[in-house]
Amino acid sequence: MTDISLFDYTLPEESIAQYPADKRDSSRLLVVDRTTGKTDHRLFSDLPEYLRAGDVLVFNDSRVMKARIIGEKEETGAKIEILLTRKIEGALWEAIAKPAKRLRKGDRLVFGKGFTAKVEDKGDGGFVKLLFECDDFWESLERFGHTPLPPYIKRGDDKADAERYQTVYAKEKGSAAAPTAGLHFTEELLGRVRDMGVETVFVTLHVGLGTFRPVQTENIEDHKMHEEYYHIGSEARQRIGHAKAEGRRIICVGTTSVRTVESASEKGNDGSTDVFFYPGGREFTITDGLITNFHLPKSTLLMLVSAFYDREKVLEIYREAIKEKYRFFSYGDAMLIL
Q1: Cα three-residue angle 230-231-232, rounded to 5 degrees
Q2: What mean pLDDT is predicted for residues 27-45?
Q3: How far apart are CA 302 and CA 282, in angstroms?
Q4: Angstrom distances, CA of residue 21 to CA of 44, 115, 187
Q5: Helix orientation angle between 300-308 and 311-323, rounded to the nearest 10 degrees
């Protein structure tokens, strides 16, 4: 048994970033050497100093949807907030409704002119399945939806968030949250690492509940990850495999990139993954390095980082980061673990 309390830590409210850094790569970077335990305090723009020719950086190119939409029940006008989490098929989507207790199967929701949905099913924990009715789903979502900022960001989204809560290389629509480790990269920084001989590979994992759903079991081994869709192209998979065979480093940008390459190594290029990394659990077979933000206490993301390095040392580094006034969570600073 692995008790969830082992992944708890105390974080001052002021450490939670409410806004992004002025410039993407001006955020801070805490560099960790797993061999020596040594840490360096740098800026993200210093990243190339820790890379070498032949390294492979793996990025998740999923694009954040305007997944938060506010609607009303057609019959009563009751306000309902929806967070889209996963496309099931066609116009049928999985979502979380708040307050879900107001909804029944068969209810219709109105989000805007020509943009409505019917509740096809209702489950536990606020889960609903919605069948959307509109001429163009993505156009309607862009018009009526909001950037799905996490609940620990205590403000509404604004126009700047639509661009800033998105990586510069975002491509494939489908995420309900940003793959935040990638938010620190600029086009200029990507050019610098490529110029020094670092390969860049893009994969896709649409961030949904599997990434940010809270662990609600005392024994983390009893936690079941929610499935998320991933895709890795044949060329990308071959380039990663070739580099791995040559002993070159595979450095994943974010926990979603880790989960994609590790899942693809077993399950193939396309599919759904519920892979869950925690100390003493599944081994990493592809990932040699990790760029990641600072994660919530008791989260599966913190458990993955603890599995990649060492739980006690990771928590010690988090305490050091708090002392050094690093900014935490989605719009916060980053770590590089090599």
Answers
A1: 135
A2: 97
A3: 15
A4: 11, 35, 16
A5: 110
pLDDT-based confidence at 210, cuts 50/70/90? low
Kindly give, in sequence order, each residue whose CB lies less than 8 Å from that of residue 200, ignoring residues fewer than 6 positions away.
Answer: 56, 57, 59, 190, 193, 194
Among the listed residues 162, 210, 194, the one whose alpha carbon sits nearest the alpha carbon of residue 59 = 194
Beta carbons within 10 angstroms of residue 266's beta carbon? 11
Count CA within 13 A, CB hemisphere, residue 93.
26
Dist CA 271 CA 232 (whole Å)? 9
In whole angstroms, give the CA distance from residue 95 to residue 314.
33
Q: With contact defined as beta carbons under 8 Å apart, do 159 and 129 qualify?
A: no
Tokens 């939409």 correspond to what residue?
A: 69
Cα within 13 Å of Cα(62), Cβ side: 28
Burial class of 291 by CB neighbour count within 10 A (0 to 12, 13 to 18, 19+)? buried
The answer to whether 74 and 110 have CB atoms below 8 angstroms apart is yes
Which residue ranges form the domains of the chain, and what is each CATH number? 4-64+161-337 (3.40.1780.10), 68-144 (2.40.10.240)
Query: Each residue of 224-276: pLDDT tens digit?
Result: 898 899 999 999 999 999 999 999 999 999 999 999 999 999 888 899 999 99
* DSSP class per residue in 67-81: -EEEEEETTT--EEE
Cα angle vertex 179, ends 319, 135, to 5°? Answer: 145
Residues 137 and 141: their CA atoms lie apart, in Å, by: 6
- Give 3's strand partners: 219
Angle at 185 (CA atoms; ends 184, 190), nearest 5 degrees: 160
Name the amino acid, one letter, at 303. Answer: M
**Residue 64, amino acid:** V
CA distance 168 to 183: 7
